[in-house]
Amino acid sequence: MEADYPKSKSYPEALTHPTVGGIMVRSKSESMIAIALAENNIPFRYENLLSIDNITIAADFTILHPITNKIYYWEHFGLLDNETYLENFAAKIKAYAKSNIILGDNLIATFETSENPLSYNTISNIIEQYLI
Q1: DSSP 57-122
Q2: 46/125 Cα distance (integer angstroms)
Q3: Residue 12 to residues 8, 17, 47, 59, 64, Cα–Cα distance (Å)
Q4: pTM of the model as a whole
Q5: CB 76 within 8 A of CB 36
Q6: What is the pLDDT of residue 109?
Q7: Contact partners, residue 90, CB within 8 Å, separation at least 6
Q8: Backbone angles phi, psi at 108, to 5 degrees
Q9: Chain-wide mean pLDDT for the chain?
């Protein structure tokens, strides 16, 4: 977690939400995820760049399971009521699947819309299910 790694440099002005260790993230929900991971001593990287099928993806969170050392990726999709965002979501899930990063196995996803925000309870339940 402390080592240098290739990070997304896209839209740095959108990194407006502080979390643990001085990490800035793009949304309040990503901030809650980062804080919950840190509280549970789960090492992670924010927007670590991955090359998948000649496409570069910045995974929201790349996580090392503290016991099994299995790598998980956690994507938070926070604008699902936006049509363009929804199309990009589908493309990202497809790209992950091509690289054997599978939703429900080593890919964790959380979702929200303007009327259904992500809760800290949901985040805690996911951490308990996959990472503890």
Answers
A1: EEEEEEEE-TTT--EEEEEEE--TTSHHHHHHHHHHHHHHHHTT--BTTTEEEEE--SSS---HHH
A2: 20
A3: 9, 12, 12, 15, 25
A4: 0.88
A5: no
A6: 95
A7: none
A8: -100, 135
A9: 89
